[in-house]
Structure formats: structure tokens, C-alpha cells
Amino acid sequence: MIDDFCKQLVARHPASVSRWVLGRIAEPEQPAVGGSWQLLDRELSSAPLHADSVVLLPESSTGAILHLEFQTRPDAAIAERMLDYWIRLHRRFHQPIRQAVIHLRPTGSHLARIEQLAIGHTRHSFHSLRLWEQDPAPLLADPALLPLAVLARPTSPSPELLLTQVRERLQAIADLDQRRLTGSGCQLLAGLAFPPDVIQRLLAMSILEDSSVYQLIKRKGLEEGRAEGLQLGLLEGRAEGLDQGRRQEALDLLGRLLLRRCGPLNSGQQEAIAALPLETLEQLGEALLDFNGADDLNRWLAAPKPGP
Description:
Number of helices: 13
Strand order of the largest sheet: 1-2-3-4-7
Order of helices and strands: HHEEEHEEEEHHHHHHHHHH
Number of domains: 3
Largest sheet: 5 strands, mixed
Helix content: 40-55%
Oligomer: single chain
């Protein structure tokens, strides 16, 4: 799940991720600049070997190809794998290659510091970036990199302050779908370093948070309430309308998110979701972050649901 998310992050934002990585591994006099950034096919041969991410860099940058591998745990075979990737990339593209392993989960293992393979006369070098040692400022400055920022070096003795800063940056993202997608990634990666209760308190966002329909109904209800003296009947009517608006907003958002996770829904799935109460729709909004396809959705719909 985490590996897939990191690959998707590079696929959506190859320039942002590549500029940050090159800023950590490139020579000071060779900064990465603008231009066209292209994500290349990760399939390196007929054998089942896929690189996590391979980016074709602009001609004015420091290297022609950037190969990235994301690691959640130490791997004793990482140096041999990086050499294998390099050979296959060289055979296919015949371009200069820069390689970096990005270690996500904090660890004291020496395996996270390996940057060279040395066997006999064979020498191969690559870069190793331990995310928990990196300055969070460049990651906080780019909305595309906020999921990586949650695992960067804490900005104070309290690591929780970093999550607070990430949440503030999330709230500044104007596009609602992008904010929720980025926020889901932040929660996912934060699970590598923070306990669930801290993530829930500082990063979790309701699927209805900042809902345009919800906010419109809320404002209208307040205005009518002030003008008409908050009469009981009107309050009940507005409360019912607010619930209906929240439910419809939840259905609309879930429909878009499920389309990305599970593909087009069939009529049975659509009817089952439409019949769910608002509290269960909220639960589905949290559960779908772990879905990998339509089968996961069918299992969730068929399973007994916890109470609100």
C-alpha cells in the first residue's frame, strides 16, 4: 500500500519529487532547473523486475535519468538490486543515471546507510536518503511533497508540531479533491512514525470537512435563524436539510474516490452505497483508503458494520 502510494506520488508530481531528491544528492554548482519532466516505463526487462520510479530529467538538469526506490524497512540486498536496476536501465536507455534509495521508516539499522556495492573489482555507488534526517522546510513548501514531510526531521523537541505544520499546509490547498488526496497520503505515511491516536487527532479529516454544500446550508440556516427568531419548526426543517445536504455531499465525494480506487461501480454497488446512513458513509470514507479494487469494496459492503 505504502509502496504503491509512493509510486503514485512520483507519477503525479515527477518534477516536484525529482527536484527535491536532486537537491539532496546533486553537487551545489549543479542545481536542477525547469524543463520537461517525463515519467518512464518502470518495466526493465522481460524478467519480473520493476523499478519503483524512473524519471527522465530535463536536458538542463544534472543527469538524464533519475531512478528512485522507496524502502519502508532495511533490505540487505538493496545494493545488489540497485546495481541490477542500473545495468538494465543502461541497456535500455544508454543515458547517465542517478540513483537514490529513500528510506521512509525511522531505523537505526546500518542497512539504511549503505551507498555502495563492492564485490571483488566491481564497484557501484548510489545515494541513500533517510527521510527522518531531512530538513522539512522544502517538503512543507511544496504541497505535492506534504506526504513526505510527515516523516522529515522534527522542527522542535515535539514531533507532533511537524504534523500540525503539515495540517496547516493541507488546509491552504484550495482544490478540495487535491487536499483530500494529499491528506490521505499524509495519514498513510504518518503511520510509519506516529501512533494512530496522534494521527487521528492532528491529521484525520472528515470526508465532509470543508464541504461546499455543508457550508452553504450552514450559512443559510444561520441567516434564516437570525431573521426568524430560531423558531422550533424552522430549526427542525433546517436540521433535516443540513443532514440531507451532508449525505449527498458524502455520496458525491465517495463516488469520485471509489471510481479512482475500484473503477466504475455496478448498479448493485451503487444501490448498496446509496442506502447507507450518513455515519456508515463516513466509515466507508475511511475504509476506502485501504481498498485496492472492487473486491475490497464488495467485502466491505458484505461485512457487518460497527455502530455509529
